[in-house]
User: Fold this.
Amino acid sequence: MGERVLTRRDLNRAVLARQLLLERTQTRLPRAVEQLAGLQAQYTPSPYLTLSARLEGFHRDHLSAALERRELVKALLMRGTLHIVTPGDYWAFTTARQAMGAHYWPPSYERRIPQRKIADLAQATVAQLRSGPRRFNEVRTLLEPHATSDISPTSLWRRVQGHAPVVHVPPSGTWGYHGEGVYQAADTVIGGAPPAAPDDACEHLIRRYLAAFGPATKQDIAQWAGLRRIGAISQAIASMDLRTFADEQGARLYDLPDAALPDPETPAPPRLVPRFDNLMLSHADRSRVLGDVPVRRIVTKNALVHATILVDGFVVGTWQLEDGRVKLEPFTPLPPAVEAGLAEEIDRVEALVA
Assistant:
C-alpha cells in the first residue's frame, strides 16, 4: 500500500491548527512562540499582530515584558531575517543553521571579502558586545575600517550576525520603538549555550518546524530555514523517527509521529494575518494557504509580504492599517456573512494598535 495522500485542504487544516489559527488558545507566551517556531519580526508590529490573531486575551505589554525579561529574544535567524524566539530555540536554531550551511557564501562574495575575515570580525565584535549593549551607530563605527567600496558596514554587520551569537535587546523589538537596533552578545543576556552536538540541534530545528508547519517536504523546511541546499536536511531526516505522506503531486511529506491532522472539513474562522507572517513564508509550495492566488500578489519583488485575509483557511485578499483603521482589500467581493465574521477581527486589530 502506498503512502496516504494529503489533499491541499488536508494540509491547510493541518498548518492552521499548528499555527493556532483554527481556534484562539490561552497558553504561556514562550510556549506559544515555540509552537509557532518563532515570530517573524522584520516589521516591529508584526509579532504583536501575529500573537493577537492566535492567542485569547493577548495584550501588547505581554510581548514587550517577555522581551524585557529575556523569556524571548530577537535575533537574525531563519532566512537571514529577524525573528523572536525562546532562548533555547535561539541556541538550537543558530547552531543548526550554521551546521546546515545556511550562510552560503558564493564565490563572488569570497573574492570581495573572505569568509575567514568575517569570522574574525565576528569574534572581535562579540568581544565588544560583551561589555554591554551597543546601538547600530556604535557597531557601524567598529566595522567601518573593514568596509570596502562595495561592502558597506551595514552589509558587514549582517554577515557578522550570521557568525556571531548576537541578539537585539530592548527597547529594540518592543512596540512603538523606531530607533536604531540595540545589540548585545547573546551569552551575556540569555541563559543556555549552543548544543554540544550539531546533529541534535539540526533535529531540534526540524522537529520544531514540523510541529509548526508540517506535514512538509524537505524543500519546505529549506525554504523556512533559509537553506539553498537540502543535503543537510536529508541527512538529518534519515536518522529521525518521522512518518511520511504524499501530496497530490506525489511529493513526499514528512511529519512528527504524533502530530494532529484535523478533519479537512474542520471550520476555519476568518483571520487577519499581519505583514511578514511566517504562515506565508514557510513553504516552498505555498498553495496550502494561498490556494490558487499567485505568490506575487502576496510577496512583492522587493520582498514586502502583505498582510492577508483568511477566509475558510485560504487567502482571499490583503489588508492594511491606515491611521489605526483596518482597510480590507479583498481580491473579489466578500459575501455579507464573511464581512460580518471579519468585523470582530477588525475590532481586535484596531484595539491592539490604538
Q: What stands out?
A: The chain has a mean pLDDT of 93.
